Amino acid sequence: MHALPEFTLRRPSTLAEAAALLAAEPGARLVAGGTDLLPNLRRGLERPALLVDVSRLAGFAGFEALADGSMLLGGGTTLAAIATDPAIGARLPALAQAANAAAAPTHRSAATLGGNLCQDTRCVFYNQSEWWRASNDYCLKRGGDTCHVAPQGNRCHAAFSGDLAPVLLALGAQVELQSPTASRWLALQDLYRDDGAAHLTLGRDEVLARVRVPAPPKDLRSGYRKARVRQAIDFPLAAVGIAMVLEQGLVQSLAVGLSGTNSHPLLLQGTGELVGRVVDDELLRKLGKLVAQQASPMRSTVTPSNYRRQVAATLTQRLLRELAAG
Ligand SMILES: Cc1cc2nc3c(=O)[nH]c(=O)nc-3n(C[C@H](O)[C@H](O)[C@H](O)COP(=O)(O)OP(=O)(O)OC[C@H]3O[C@@H](n4cnc5c(N)ncnc54)[C@H](O)[C@@H]3O)c2cc1C
Ligand code: SF4
After folding, report:
1. 103 shares a domain with 28
2. 31 CA distance to ligand 1 centroid (A)?
3. What digits encode the pLDDT tens for the residues 25-39?
4. Ligand 2 atom at shortest distance from the alpha carbon of 139
5. Pocket of ligand 1, beta carbon within 6 A
6. CA distance readout (Å), 159 to 117, 147, 194
7. Where does the pLDDT of residue 13 fall: very low under 50, low under 70, confident under 90, or very high at 90 and above?
């Protein structure tokens, strides 16, 4: 890694002001905890002229439970707060588990919810030093014209590897985006597109302000599991968040979110077919098949892509079995 490049730092006092600064300077980047962005700057992956620092912005961190049972979390809430606050642990245990599984305690004390959802995609050919990438003629995502993972193709397959998105997808979360003059809500899944080089639909002048998690249905069972090379301080090779309601042994609703396998966090399609059934070997086989069909890991990590596909399916089956067993 190199020293940080030169930049101007601005600390706005409102989110709208932050968005206006982003709008005014094409080379500007938002920085919150900096735990994803700063290593990337030190690798020379980006050279923004202006950093807009929202880490000290009043009212940006924190959360509140609303009367209807839904929960609002500020984009500036740290992963440490999400992982350890008893109110979140009681209401959204899977989210607390996911936050606790991200990075290391020191990262989590600075890393934010907004930064976790908006973090860059990752690839072994991309998260490297300048000289390493230069010696490989760079790649399609930045500076080059070939994808070393899929050289015949014309798109980037870098993987989205955030821990919180799969749980929030399974819980049906929405995000609020603040521009200089207005704000809008959208379903979390619509924040992403399937392109490793441009995986966010977020406008250049928008800031992720808040996340809304709808009121969990009564008796919701939820959980999070991730597989990684090291058992600490490591991104998921494959990860799964599940939210399920089981009544008298039958599945009433089932939502599954995946991370680490595709260029965007994936909300598994087709789980409606499993509603009304018992969680038995046949259901788990069908669920595993849905995951294996929709997860599309590429050779963007140190492990083979088919291994990650199988791990994603197995993690999902195991977690659902555990949740069904109570
Ligand atoms: C050694 C190491 C291990 C890690 N392990 C994990 C891991 O296991 N799991 C995991 O999920 N992450 C991991 N990370 C990545 C990182 O720590 C997390 O993703 C963290 O939550 C990022 O949050 P941040 O506030 O630090 O983001 P920043 O670095 O400040 O920002 C990240 C990106 O999001 C944008 N951004 C930040 N906030 C907002 C917002 N409110 N609205 C719009 N855009 C925004 C920034 O412009 C930037 O592009 C790891 C990082 C390191 C260095
Ligand atoms: S998937 Fe291809 S284009 Fe994308 S970062 Fe990796 S090598 Fe580069």
Report:
1. no
2. 9
3. 988 999 999 999 999
4. 8
5. 29-37, 39, 75, 79, 102-103, 107, 110-112, 114-116, 118-120, 162-163, 202, 207-208, 233-235
6. 13, 13, 10
7. very high
> Does residue 129 form part of some domain?
no
In a domain, 93, yes or no: yes
Q: Is 22 in the pocket of ligand 2 (CB under 6 A)?
A: no
Q: Does ligand 2 have an atom closer than 6 angstroms to the CB of 15?
A: no
Number of domain units in the chain: 2
Q: How far apart are CA 176 and CA 181, in angstroms?
A: 13
Residue 38 CA, ligand 2 centroid: distance in Å: 20
Ligand 2 atom closest to residue 140's alpha carbon, by position in its atom list: 3
CATH number of the domain enclosing 104: 3.30.390.50
The per-residue pLDDT for 282 is 98
Tokens of 119: 């973090």
Largest Cα–Cα separation, the chain:
61
* 123 in contact with ligand 2, CB cutoff 6 A: yes
Query: pLDDT tens digits, residue range 41-74?
Result: 999 999 999 999 999 999 999 999 999 999 999 9
- Measured from the alpha carbon of residue 41, the closest ligand is 1
Domain encompassing residue 26:
1-54
φ and ψ at residue 211, rounded to 5 degrees? -120, 135
Q: Which helix (H) or strand (E) holds 86?
A: helix 86-91
Per-residue pLDDT of 51-60, as tens digits, reads 999 999 999 9
Has residue 104 been placed in a domain?
A: yes
- CA 315 to centroid of ligand 1, rounded, Å: 24
